[in-house]
Amino acid sequence: MAGDERDRGILSESDRKYLRGETTLGSVQSERNTRARIRDRVYDALLDFELLVDRLDDHDRRLVFENRPEGTETFDALVSAVAFCYRATSDTGLDFETVLTEGINVAEAKADRAATVQFDLTFQSLTVDQLRTKLERGKELTLTELAYLHESDDVRMDELAHYFADSEDATAEIDDGRIQSKVTSFGADGTSDGD
């Protein structure tokens, strides 16, 4: 997640600080107003995507991502955008596969083609013991599994780092920022091994 040095996006710097728990608002009403303002901005931003897809020049869209610093910030941002939209479809009662298929086809229509989208969603529960066993067997973890362990109170960072090549460096990396950004340090490729 980028720091507060960046310009305002959907959220202002003060909105980001509020959501991270770095600031306390003076009253209950002030907190309600902040939360309402954030909700309205998020919805308005989603509505803006229709205009961006229809009217933003392809060259300008490419320039959004060109000449950005090296690293995984863009990857993390796009993963988070998809995650937010995935949750939003559930909140609105829409089917994610339908939204995904239509979105891909809207994008492909500009290239005068349509796409057939095959989407397979299988759920599995996550537990610390299950993921420890997977690591002990030398299997790689997905981004989601790493993030789950990173957030768990049942796993210390030095314990998690033990499973990776250089545990001292890995511990420092685990403690530093979003877990998705650190996957390459662990040697994981972000794909599931089917377990």
Description:
- The protein folds into two domains: 13-109, no CATH class; 128-186, no CATH class.
- It is 58% helix and 0% strand.
- The protein has helices at 13-20, 28-55, 58-65, 73-92, 96-109, 128-136, 143-151, 157-161, 167-175, 183-186.
- The protein is globular, with a radius of gyration of 20 Å.
Gist of the model:
The protein is mostly helical. The chain contains ten helices and no strands. The longest helix has 28 residues.
In whole angstroms, the N-to-C terminal distance is 29 Å
| Percentage of residues in helical conformation | 55-70%
**Which structural class is indicated by helix and strand composition?**
mainly alpha
Overall strand count:
0
Query: Looking at the structure, what is the overall shape?
Result: globular
How many domains make up the coordinates?
A: 2
How would a crystallographer describe the biggest sheet?
none
Number of distinct helices: 10
The Cα radius of gyration reads 20 Å
